[in-house]
Design goal:
Layout: H1 17-24, E1 31-34, H2 41-49, E2 54-57, E3 71-73, H3 89-106, H4 121-130, H5 137-151, H6 157-165, H7 175-192, H8 196-202, H9 207-246, E4 254-257, H10 266-277, E5 281-286, E6 291-297, H11 304-314, E7 321-324, E8 328-334, H12 338-349, H13 355-358, H14 375-383, E9 396-408, E10 412-419, E11 426-430, E12 443-454, E13 457-469
Parallel strand pairs: 1-2, 2-3, 4-5, 11-13
Antiparallel strand pairs: 5-6, 6-8, 7-8, 9-10, 9-12, 10-11, 12-13
Helix pairs in contact: 1-2, 3-4, 4-5, 4-7, 6-9, 7-8, 7-9, 8-9, 9-10, 11-12
């Protein structure tokens, strides 16, 4: 068995007819897709014409027409009764292997000791967290078991190497480490060059090989961060011009494009813009073939893929290709249709952006007493995970006096806070904030209580998610 990963810059996404032709040159017996294929009607048809059966395994939402594959395994396809609707592509494939193993065990074709799928759970955990799918009960079990194996030193060399180059402690590896340290380095391969480098790292047979590959990924990730920073600054400038042109109107969403943007990074830019504004955002880059490739990031209450589907039904010439989820989607449009698409995008958002959807919601479990602002509390919360999409860690809110503040690292705000009702002075950080807070007035903060580990020491750190002057509406 061999694998073939489409180059996103040359081939786009999914099982296209061009990818089928590349696969056919290797003379396979069949084609098995992972995390794609549910929208590949033309690609599956091409494979069938060549006498190649296709098994589609995917989790993306299907369109109006399903591909005529030999088999489709997708919990979100019509008629599927599988309870775990939020599986990532790696989770779907894990269950396919589990079903195959059960069938072959029943027929006596394999030795149970030589088909241990538990050895794959580190990969399942990595892929599930990296794909940002909701951590429902089923996914939480998969992630928890994968993390348990990694912490016990039973992970594959490639994941261990990624943790090492990211400076993460393996025996305390968390879902946060996967999401913010390992996954970005792995994904940097596909964003900046070819995902083959990431796959080879995960398949590395030994520590030395894995570390060399992980170091390359770390370098690509540094390049990605620099490029992303420049693109985000340009997007911010575009957004400010948009707001100035809109005068007093509150934009329903954003649709941005720059000729110099990197198509592998536009999804990250759209995501950051969505976080800052609480509005759906789409960012485009040139693909070099007369088309623009874009990524959508959305907010609760606005289904990204359904927004695109409605635009495609009304104006098919604007949107020949798209796919995705509720919170994220990808699309390709003709270069000349950008302005028309922007108008259609904003027009469709009018149907979705009610007053309730526009308002950013912050959930809180209330204040923590001074007696609970401790390392012990943070440890209990850490061990209550895995936390993630659809299952966020507890947040708290209360008023603090600002003792001091400074900007550190890549534009993060470091603070020391003291509860207004009395208590200890606590370190706090607000990520991706490059402006100091007004002083001389108590602050109302929404925060998470986490452990900060440094040089073998553990101390309490508040991760501030939102801040405003006390008493402000």
């Amino acid at each position: 068995m061999s694998y073939l990963i489409p180059d996103r810059f040359e081939h786009g996404y999914g099982l296209s007819p061009a990818i089928v032709d590349l696969a056919a040159a290797r003379r396979p017996d069949l084609i098995l897709t992972v995390d794609n294929g549910i929208a590949s009607v033309e690609g599956v048809a091409r494979a069938t014409s060549l006498g190649l059966p296709v098994i589609v395994t995917d989790h993306h939402l299907p369109g109006d027409r399903l591909p005529e594959a030999a088999a489709i395994v997708n919990p979100n396809q019509p008629g599927c009764e599988f309870a775990g609707k939020h599986l990532a592509g790696v989770g779907v494939m894990f269950y396919v292997l589990a079903a195959l193993r059960a069938r072959r065990l029943a027929s006596g074709c394999i030795d149970p000791d030589k088909a241990r799928l538990a050895d794959l759970l580190d990969l399942v955990a990595l892929g599930t967290v990296a794909d940002l799918v909701p951590l429902d009960r089923n996914n939480r079990i998969l992630v928890a078991q994968g993390l348990r194996r990694l912490r016990a030193g039973r992970g594959r060399p490639g994941i261990v190497a990624l943790a090492r180059v990211a400076g993460r402690t393996l025996d305390r590896l968390s879902e946060t480490d996967i999401g913010f340290a390992l996954a970005p380095r792995l994904n940097a391969a596909g964003r900046m060059d070819s995902m083959t480098l990431g796959v080879e790292c995960l398949l590395a047979p030994d520590e030395q090989t894995a570390l060399a590959l992980a170091a390359e990924l770390d370098g690509l990730n540094r390049d990605r961060r620099q490029r992303q920073g420049r693109m985000e600054s340009q997007a911010q400038a575009q957004m400010e011009r948009w707001l100035a042109a809109a005068e007093d109107e509150d934009p329903l969403g954003y649709c941005l494009f720059d000729a110099d943007w990197h198509e592998g990074i536009v999804g990250l830019v759209a995501g950051r813009l969505k976080e800052r504004t609480h509005r759906p955002a789409v960012a485009f880059a040139r693909s070099g073939d007369g088309r623009l490739k874009g990524s959508v990031r959305s907010i609760p209450g606005v289904h990204a893929r359904d927004v695109l589907a409605n635009i495609a039904r009304a104006r098919p010439e604007l949107l020949p290709r798209f796919g995705g989820h509720a919170m994220a989607a990808g699309l390709s449009i003709p270069d000349a249709q950008l302005d028309a698409f922007r108008r259609a995008w904003l027009g469709e958002l009018e149907r979705w952006m009610s007053d309730a959807v526009r308002e950013r919601r912050l959930d809180s479990d209330g204040p923590l007493t001074a007696a609970h602002l401790t390392v012990e509390t943070a440890g209990v919360l850490e061990n209550g995970g895995p936390w993630g999409q659809g299952f966020p860690p507890p947040s708290f809110d209360e008023q603090f006096e600002l003792i001091d503040q400074r900007i550190v690292g890549d534009a993060h705000l470091k603070m020391r806070l003291c509860p207004v009702d009395g208590g200890p002075i606590i370190d706090a950080i607000m990520f991706r904030r490059d402006q100091l807070l007004p002083e001389g007035r108590p602050l109302h903060c929404v925060y998470r209580a986490e452990l900060n580990r440094y040089q073998g020491r553990e101390q309490l750190q508040l991760v501030v998610e939102h801040v405003q002057p006390a008493g402000a509406c």
